[in-house]
Amino acid sequence: MLQHRNSEPRDPARVVVLGARGFLGGATCRRLAAGNIKTLALGSADLDLLADDAAERLAAMLRPDDSLVMFAALTPDRGRDIATLMKNLRMAEAVCAAIAARPVAHLVYISSDAVYPFRDGLVNEDSPADPSDLYGAMHRTREIMFAASAGDAPLSILRPTLLYGAGDPHNSYGPNRFRRLAAKDGKITFGGEGEETRDHLFVEDAAALAVAVLRHGSAGLLNLATGRSASFREIAALVAARFDRPIALQGSPRQAPITHRAFDVTALHKAFPAFVGTPLEDGLARAHREITETA
Amino acid sequence: MAVVEEVLRDDAVLVMLSQVPPGFTRGLGRARARLYYQVETLIFGLAVERALNPERFIVGCADPARPLPTAYGAVLDAFDCPILPMRYESAELAKISINCCLVASISVANTLAEICEKIGADWSEIVPALKLDRRIGQHAYLTPGLGIAGGNLERDLATVRRQADARGTDAGVVRAWVANSRYRKDWALRLLHETVVATVTSPVIGVLGLAYKENTHSTKNSPSIALIESLGPFALRVHDPVVPASAAPHPAARGCATAMEVCAGADALLVMTPWDDYRALDPAAIATAMRGRVVIDPYAVLNEAACRDAGLAYWRLGATQP
Questions:
Q1: 3-class SS of residue A170
Q2: Which residues in A lie closer than 8 A to residue B118 (C-beta atoms)?
Q3: For chain B: N or C, fewer Cβ within 10 A?
Q4: Which bin fits B149, alpha (ψ -120 to 50), beta or left (φ > 0)?
Q5: Are residues B153 and B47 in the same domain?
Q6: Do B257 and B201 reside in the same domain of the chain?
Q7: How far is A270 from chain B (nearest CA, A)?
Q8: Which residues in B lie closer than 8 A to residue A227 (C-beta atoms)?
Q9: Residue A63's domain spans which residues?
Q10: What is the span of the domain harbouring residue B105?
């Protein structure tokens, strides 16, 4: 459960963003800029967290009143193996060493719902984090690393569900890939009959919540999700409906047992009562429009 | 105990009614022959009724085979109900066991009622069929609620978990009941967000009832108070027949003199305490007064058919809105 240090939101002195060029990191930086919140946006080209001197270089940039947000991670499309896991842990190690040398005022770690196993259909912040793959294990380990390194700074761990939106560079199974398939092939193929249900969060909503956490100086754990899950078939149909031409929807032989994931977002309602997420249909429409306009 | 024992006659019978954890009575080390542990089974709001008409007496004894002392036995006999002597530990656990059985039943009701809400079933249609099963019984506790209400049940579940953890026995099901209760407590909040907050800018929320249950002024463990704690940003109107509006944990809750005043201009109406006063409300009048259409009535205080006829979007526990 999230606890707010600032009952009324106020702008942090400065936000240092690690992973600023990524999908969610970039969206968050744009939102911070729109709110005129002073930001030091660092991508891997600005600061390579795998470099031997990463900790020292980062520490030299940090100020005591900074809010530090860690988005930076090698996502599954960059590798799902042990080598990638270790690189991600070394990146976190560098950040932890930096904040140990130069403590900050607030620390926010962007984790993932990959820490939750699929055996429990309904997930909330009390659900055991028991990852079953290396990517989930990486995030869970990083959560613990940051908790051990935060010192007196309030630490917020945010676990987003699957994200979607116009600028997604990944090709993960779901709305983003469906859209690309539809545009390229005129059809969307999903696993089985698309029965599996998932919660998808519009990236702009995730960014808005990250900024809200920063402005409230929040500490604790929060899942970022909508509380509404849809089947992949339903999602494919919504994506297909955005196109002017007919898009075929087809299933494929099922390779793995059906799993479902739903989120109990009561904690989100309590932390940010006035927050209203973008309905899936609206978010997909907006993403489609943005992609089409920039194409 | 020391204070009491100081003034007791040597031949006095001491009967403890305070709920205690298993092992407590024997651990007192008093002259156990004249020490009894009697399980108290009062229900909040029905204390006098339960005291005057007990279903049975559960009596923990040093030696259950020995007859009860004459005077004590005479008092219990006067109520003409079964008297069940047993060892101390069994009696101490009996009260907890009663509450665990109730919690199990409530948890089944809550879990299946939620599925009913998602699949178009109606839990209230299923309950009579369950009660006609002798293994479940006519008096089974199967009404869905907003979690486990009352600190006593939660305390007993915590006692079972502690006892199990200390002795290496499995209390997973107890943990599941607690988790389900915590989840179910926020049913109204989640529904309010789905039906109103997600679609109405700056909604006005009306809440009927602040008390923990009807016929009491207590707000301890009140589902209404818990709900209101999460409504800070929204305009709020409240009414309760006995609890003042100042009890609402909200920066600007407006206390209303009448229930209809709560309805006026509201986008959502939540009936959070099943006061009899609210049963007489006319859904047509509610619909006319409200700006929105959503009525969240977990305890089915209002007439559901009349609410739907009045064009209200009516929600209660255990059923889907058609």
A1: coil
A2: none
A3: C
A4: beta
A5: no
A6: yes
A7: 5
A8: 190, 193-194
A9: 14-165+200-227+262-278
A10: 94-184
Please check whether residue A126 touches B, CB under 8 A: yes
- Judgement on whether residues B100 and B173 belong to the same structural domain of the protein: yes
Residues 6+ apart with CB under 8 A from B286: B260, B263, B269, B295, B302, B307, B310, B312
Q: Distance between CA atoms of A283 and A136, rounded to whole angstroms?
A: 26
Q: Do A265 and B190 touch (CB under 8 A)?
A: yes
Q: Are B37 and B92 in contact (CB under 8 A)?
A: yes
**C-alpha–C-alpha distance, residues A33 and A41, integer Å:** 10
Q: What pLDDT was estimated at residue A295?
A: 77
Q: What is the 3-state secondary structure (H, E, C) of B108-167?
A: HHHHHHHHHHHHCCEHHHHHHHHHCCCCCCCCCCCCCCCCCCCHHHHHHHHHHHHHHHHH
Q: Which of A124, A270, A276 sits opposite B197 (nearest CB)?
A: A276
On whether the CB atoms of residues A92 and A145 are closer than 8 A, the answer is yes
CA within 13 Å, CB half, A17: 27
Interface touch A270/B230, C-beta < 8 Å: yes
Alpha-carbon distance A53 to nearest alpha carbon in chain B (angstroms) = 46
Measured between CA atoms, how close is B230 to chain A, in angstroms? Answer: 5
Q: How far is B232 from chain A (nearest CA, A)?
A: 7
Radius of gyration of chain A (CA): 19
Q: How many residues does chain A have?
A: 295
Matching residue, tokens 């599925």: B115
Closest approach of chain B CAs to the CA of A118, in angstroms? 18
pTM assigned to the model: 0.91
Amino acid at B265: G
A273 Cβ under 8 Å from any chain B Cβ: yes
ipTM over 0.85: yes
Residues of chain A positioned with their CB less than 8 A from the CB of B198: 276-277, 279
Total number of domains constituting chain B: 3
The residues of B whose Cβ lies within 8 A of any Cβ of A are: 179, 182-183, 186, 189-190, 193-194, 197-198, 229-234
Dihedral-angle region of residue B23 (phi above 0 means left; psi in -120 to 50 means alpha; beta otherwise): left
The gap between the terminal CA atoms of chain A, to the nearest Å, is 41
**Distance between CA A249 and CA A16 in Å, rounded?**
43
Same domain, B63 and B113: no
Per-residue pLDDT of chain B (322 residues; tens, 9 = 90+): 778 878 888 888 999 998 888 889 988 866 566 899 999 877 766 788 888 899 999 999 999 999 999 999 999 999 999 999 999 999 999 989 999 999 999 999 999 999 999 999 999 999 999 999 999 999 999 999 998 876 788 889 999 999 999 999 999 999 999 999 999 999 999 999 999 999 999 999 999 999 999 998 999 989 999 999 999 999 999 999 999 999 999 999 999 999 999 999 999 999 999 999 999 999 999 999 999 999 999 999 999 999 999 999 999 999 988 6
Assess if residue B320 is contained within a domain.
Answer: no
Most A CBs within 10 Å, among B115, B186, B204, B229, to test the A interface? B186
> Which one of B114, B117, B177, B193 makes the best mutation probe of the A interface by having the most chain A beta carbons within 10 Å?
B193
3-state secondary structure of A103: coil
